[in-house]
């Protein structure tokens, strides 16, 4: 047997170190999170995406129902983007998740750095990673931003969060041709 290995990469830092666009995206996700409909989990999630072609922001929150077949925030944000623009590529996605009782303040002072291992960074659920990848148009460098419990921000390419990918290209679908300008 041969060993095959890849390197995973993520960055962790302060909110104020981010670009204006990254800060706007996280703020939009924080605002969307406040709309969460989550009486069953009590877990509020907000997400925001920037569209690559139009530079527009699209947001989503989690929407639960009693049949437990709800919508996750990341899925909701992407669906909103597609509803407005048709099939289109994500440039970047931010999501924020915490119990309903937690007030997320992005500008808050970071008191202690705790994220020293890759596994500690923010990562969407497996189902959302698959759905996000659908609208990355085969670009593994699309960035996913999140906030750690201590207030630091993590930034990682989808290629590191979903290193081995089953995607539209596997079935011969080329969204670059399907996307509407
Ligand atoms: Zn999810």
Overview of the molecule:
With 181 residues, this protein is of the alpha+beta class. The protein has a single domain, classed as Cytidine Deaminase, domain 2. 24% of the residues lie in helices and 20% in strands. It is built from five helices and six strands; from the N terminus they run βαββαβαββαα. It has helices at 20-33, 73-85, 126-134, 158-161, 175-178; strands at 11-13, 43-51, 57-61, 90-99, 143-147, 153-157. The chain has a six-stranded mixed β-sheet with strand order 1-6-5-4-2-3. Zinc ion is lined by residues 72, 74, 124-125, 127-128.
**Stretches where pLDDT falls below 50 for ≥5 residues?**
none
What fraction of residues sit in β-strands?
15-25%
- The rounded Rg comes to 16 Å
Bound molecules: zinc ion
User: How many E-type strands?
Assistant: 6
- What's the pLDDT, averaged over the residues? 94
Amino-to-carboxy terminus distance: 47 Å
Q: What is the level-2 CATH architecture name?
A: 3-Layer(aba) Sandwich
Give the fraction of residues assigned to helices. Answer: 10-25%
Structurally, the number of domains stands at 1
List SSEs in N-to-C order: EHEEHEHEEHH
CATH fold field value:
Cytidine Deaminase, domain 2
Question: Quick one: biggest sheet?
Answer: 6 strands, mixed
Strand order of the largest sheet: 1-6-5-4-2-3
Number of helical segments? 5
The class by helix and strand makeup works out as alpha+beta
